[in-house]
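Morning!

This is the sequence you dropped in the shared folder:
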Amino acid sequence: MIDGMILEFLNSILLQIPGLSSGPLGSSNPIIQGTIGSVFGIVLIAIGLNLLNAIIRKKMVDQGKIKRLLKETRAWQKERMAAFRAKDQEKIDQLNKKSAYMNKMNMEIMQSNMRPMMITFVPFLLIFYLVLPHLFSYTVALSPIPLDIIPGNFFHLTCTAEDISKPEHICTQANQMYLWSWYFLSSVAVSGIIMRVTKTSMSTD
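The structure's back. Tokens below.
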């Protein structure tokens, strides 16, 4: 699930970086009007893109092999941590001899997960650039509370009072959710379910 979250986060926030997009993501005259249509429309798109990602992942990644590697590396990490806590130097030295092998397996897991991500990354960005800005408004939902949980002041998930005070800003009300942030939260919410249903999660169960 973590790799899916990272992909969706990168897909979303990259569009907010000056120079990568012509302006805020969305439209002042979108095809889909209203909060209900926008909210559910974005959720459906998030489900569709996550399903596409899961299908590609299932085709390209040997899930059985990945689960075996994950199970082995996690068991080694757990055993190594227990040895450190027990201050069993002999056990630590014995486990450290497997470090190179475990690092190799971790690299294999990472490379396997990156292959489908590299295929889906560009199409997902094109959908953001060419489809979403025409379908939906700049802000699509209203949060009951501020959701600016990302450290720093570079990305806002919801509109702030400071944003509203800026001339010609897209926000008209505090805690309005941007198009990209609602997509991101929607995608995170459905990705774990879809990965479990399609058996493409990183769980060893």
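Headline: DSSP finds eight helices and two strands in the chain.

More detail when I'm at my desk.
O.
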